[in-house]
């Protein structure tokens, strides 16, 4: 299954999942964050240019709300020669990571350009992580229900799996492990949260997201 297949069997997007109030909060938070982080983003862009040249940004098609594909923005973590269609996961010791890329992967600062996706309305501040097309076929067996929610920059699954690369056993194919263990665990975490979310709880997860960026994060319940 790919993104076009998901669109043909498109899950309905919950009308209450992302109303006017949440959209207003998204716009306010994203706008403020862009202003605050603009100097840092400029430094990252310059560092990437000096290290390897263009492009500075990495664009990749992801699965959005209702199964609709959209282009997601990130700072480039890999070498210039690595395109968007290579190995879909970043694992420990990934040889594609540059020196700046390792810093971005550790801090998650590579995600900052997604504030533009939030302003465009393709993403929210809080929502399920948008999945790459390589795993679009995993949305089945009830897990496709998560597609009714707008994907987010932060959220329970993103924060609980803050150090996801550490959880891949060396003796197991990482793609198979992601499909069979990590992907279902993350979606079930999201499905346990978003149907009962409130604006207050979303704001609490924003605070937890900040704490996760500064190296605090609870252990992920992989066996859910």
TrEMBL record:
Span of domain Bacterial sugar transferase = 22-214
Task: Quote one Gene Ontology molecular function term.
Answer: phosphotransferase activity, for other substituted phosphate groups
Keywords (A to Z) from UniProt? Exopolysaccharide synthesis, Membrane, Transferase, Transmembrane, Transmembrane helix
* Leader sequence residues: none
Record GO biological process: polysaccharide biosynthetic process
Give a Pfam family name. Answer: Bac_transf
Which InterPro entries does the UniProt entry name for this protein?
A: Bact_transf
TM spans, by residue?
27-50
Q: Which family does it belong to?
A: Belongs to the bacterial sugar transferase family.
Q: What is this protein called?
A: Lipopolysaccharide/colanic/teichoic acid biosynthesis glycosyltransferase
Q: Which organism is it from?
A: Rhizobium loti
């Amino acid at each position: 299954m790919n993104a076009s297949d998901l669109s043909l069997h498109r899950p309905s997007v919950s009308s209450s999942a992302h109303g006017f109030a949440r959209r207003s909060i998204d716009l306010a938070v994203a706008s403020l964050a862009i202003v605050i982080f603009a100097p840092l983003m400029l430094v990252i862009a310059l560092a990437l240019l000096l290290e390897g040249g263009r492009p500075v940004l990495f664009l990749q098609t992801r699965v959005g709300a209702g199964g609709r594909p959209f282009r997601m923005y990130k700072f480039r973590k890999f070498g210039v020669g690595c395109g968007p269609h290579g190995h879909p996961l970043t694992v420990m010791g990934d040889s594609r990571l540059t020196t700046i890329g390792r810093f971005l992967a550790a801090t998650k600062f590579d995600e900052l350009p997604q504030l533009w996706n939030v302003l465009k309305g393709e993403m929210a501040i809080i929502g399920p992580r948008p999945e790459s097309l390589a795993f679009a076929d995993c949305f089945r067996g009830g897990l496709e229900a998560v597609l009714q929610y707008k994907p987010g920059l932060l959220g329970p699954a993103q924060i609980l799996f803050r150090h996801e690369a550490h959880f891949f056993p060396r003796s197991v194919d990482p793609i198979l492990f992601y499909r069979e263990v990590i992907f279902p665990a993350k979606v079930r975490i999201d499905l346990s949260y978003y149907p009962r979310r409130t604006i207050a709880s979303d704001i609490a997860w924003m605070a937890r997201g900040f704490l996760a960026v500064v190296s605090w994060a609870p252990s992920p319940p992989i066996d859910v």
